[in-house]
Amino acid sequence: MNIIERGRAHLQSLMVLAKRTVWDWKQCPGCGSTCTSCWGSYTRHPWCLRRQRQEVRIQRHMCYQCVHTYSEQSALLVRGSWYGRDVHRCAIDHWQHLGTSLRRTAEVLRSLLGRQERWLLWRPLDAAPSERCYLSASTVHRWLDGAGKTARASIDGQLAGIGQAQELGADGLRAKLKGKAQRVVLLVVDSVSGLIYPPVVAKGEESAGPWQRLFARAKQAGLDLDEVRGVTSDGALGLLAYLRRSLAWVQHQRCVWHLWRNLGGELSRAASQAAEGLTGEPAEQAREQVRAELGGLIHKIMDAQSYEQAEAALATLLGHPLGATIGKLLDEQLDRVLVHLLDYYRGLPRVTPKWPKVAGLPPPPEPRP
Q1: pLDDT tops 90 at residue 154
Q2: Residue 137 in contact with residue 103, Cβ under 8 Å?
Q3: Chain-centre distance of CA 247, in angstroms?
Q4: Rounded to whole angstroms, how far apart are CA atoms 5 and 71?
Q5: Pick from 24, 60, 58, 63: which is nearest to 39 by CA?
Q6: What is the pLDDT confidence band of residue 112, given thresholds at 50, 70 and 90?
Q7: Cα–chain-centroid distance for residue 277?
Q8: Nearest of 227, 171, 177 to residue 200 by alpha carbon
Q9: What is the pLDDT of residues 11-29, one digit of tens each?
């Protein structure tokens, strides 16, 4: 089985385990005999995300056919652990997705589980917890180590039968080096699986050459360029030139985050124009009103569910006394903004790869609509 099939099988096994009834547990998991009886019980006190620590009773059974005892299992618990399955998965996801240290991962989870430490900073009026959680970084490290060993043992065949990437995201990160030198790190990512292809460092991204080297390296790493349907980017001219010259069949989806950021200056100018001749509170109200009106129309265009809705919102924006300039800019980019609505390109993301997630960098400022 490949990695997707294994994930589905694991989820299905948890669902089957969660649906088992009392009568189902009467059947011995070893020999299948139903000649069993209850054989005592024991209690556990696991930490879980859903609620505070509670007592859980685990029933044991005795099989008269094979003379073995067994315990009922739960899809929410992990055998031999003080923490529920959700805590295990949350810890691994927190460490991997946010890129934090083991210590910070354990600290955040302790705060959430025990309503302690940072929880009292978030909710200073809450009472101190009656019972403390002692989840440590070494425990999270042990969970990660176990998950890594399991993943390593399943490497063979994990990509068998998985199709080639068809939707990609591309972006460039500018970096200042010693001596005031500047370089751009170009990156292309499979938008479905999150696979990061080998990046390329270049002096700039305005020409098609660096982007050609980037996709050539991705091809060497296993990317089938003939299968690519669409690429999401910030509108770099070099990438557009490369796509037109070498991958003419590939559609370009405009990153809406970068487009919002580019429209920020026009929104500010429109708001300032609306407040001309006014001072104080009336001027601020006029600016906020124009921002709300124009921002709402831009949202209707970028977030439209069909081309008809986008064109109707664009016509309203062009008819706005202060929206003509923004409307013309969006009219030029309309086809690229709405590529993801076409059935053939469904699944194409609307934003470029996020560098904070990929490289552990601080997040960029959010554009103000």
Answers
A1: no
A2: yes
A3: 28
A4: 28
A5: 60
A6: very high
A7: 46
A8: 171
A9: 999 999 999 999 999 999 9
Region 37-66: mean pLDDT is: 92
The answer to whether the CB of 297 falls within 8 A of the CB of 313 is yes
**What's the N-to-C CA distance of the chain in angstroms?**
46
**Tell me: the pLDDT tens digits for 55-102?**
999 999 999 999 999 999 999 999 999 999 999 999 999 998 888 999
Decide if 77 contacts 86 (C-beta within 8 A).
no
How far, rounded to the nearest angstrom, does the alpha carbon of residue 200 sit from its chain's CA centroid? 24
pLDDT score, position 354: 63
Locate the domains of the chain by residue range. Answer: 3-71, 85-153, 167-255+351-359, 256-345
Q: Which residues contact 173 (CB under 8 A, 6 or more apart)?
A: 184, 185, 187, 355, 359, 361
Query: Taking the CA of residue 98 as centre, how many other CA atoms within 13 Å lie in the half-sphere pointing to its CB?
Result: 12
Nearest Cα residue to 195 out of 231, 169, 171, 227: 169
Check the CA dihedral 97-103-109-112 and report its sign.
negative
- Give the Cα separation of 60 and 39 in Å (integer): 5
Prediction pTM value: 0.60
CATH number among 3.90.550, 1.25.40, 3.30.70, 3.30.420, domain 167-255+351-359: 3.30.420
In one-letter notation, the amino acid at residue 165 is A
| Residue 224 to residue 76: CA distance in whole angstroms | 41
